[in-house]
Specification:
Length: 196
């Protein structure tokens, strides 16, 4: 027994009472109000399905409901490709990984470029996750905040490290384009929400 009272007569029932019927009014304790309980369960299940559907719809509106949004989503992943070009002097993501695998790279000598590239990946993931909720009330502000922080950290580390290569400049161009696209996507989402 989960409850120590009868659901019909409110009579006290011992927690060790194992029979199916109430000792006071003889109602079946397991099946009392079964239809109402099933209806309540069905309403709760429908509410959960509706919540999942609203969440999926929000993700669609925020990321794939127009070609501009899809382009922005794809652009978020391009820094991984630009980091394969030389980022700092001749160091790229590819040469960093190859040097670690071959054991020819001393991490101590390239710690700042490694931190910079790791932050590109981590902060880009934050921007991607934030963009999935662009259709929310504060979506644009949050997207711009994360994109601005991402770009600022990248630029500051580039200035500190120095020797920026073509991959660094390409990554910076991607970040600046992302910020422009955030504004364009804001208008696109607002237009779609106005139609809905």
């Amino acid at each position: 027994m989960m409850n120590n009272t009868c659901p019909k007569c409110n009579g006290k029932i011992s927690p060790f009472y194992m029979k199916q019927n109430c000792p006071h009014c003889n109602v079946n304790l397991h099946y009392y109000n079964l239809e109402e309980n099933l209806e309540a369960d069905a309403r709760q299940a429908q509410a959960e399905v509706d919540a999942v559907n609203r969440f999926i719809e929000l993700l669609k509106k925020s990321s794939v409901s127009s070609p501009v949004l899809i382009f922005r989503l794809v652009l978020f992943f391009t820094p991984l490709a630009s980091m394969c070009l030389p980022m700092y002097n001749d160091l790229s993501l590819v040469s960093l990984i190859a040097g670690m695998i071959n054991g020819t790279l001393e991490i101590g000598s390239v710690i700042m470029p490694v931190i910079s590239m790791a932050l590109v990946i981590v902060l880009s993931l934050v921007v991607i996750i934030s963009s999935l909720f662009s259709a929310t009330k504060t979506g644009f502000l949050r997207n711009m905040l994360f994109s601005t922080v991402n770009t600022a950290v990248f630029v500051v580390l580039g200035v500190i490290i120095g020797g920026m290569g073509v991959g660094w400049y390409l990554t910076l161009a991607i970040y600046l384009l992302e910020m422009v696209l955030q504004y364009i996507c804001k208008k696109e989402i607002a237009k779609k929400q106005g139609v809905d």
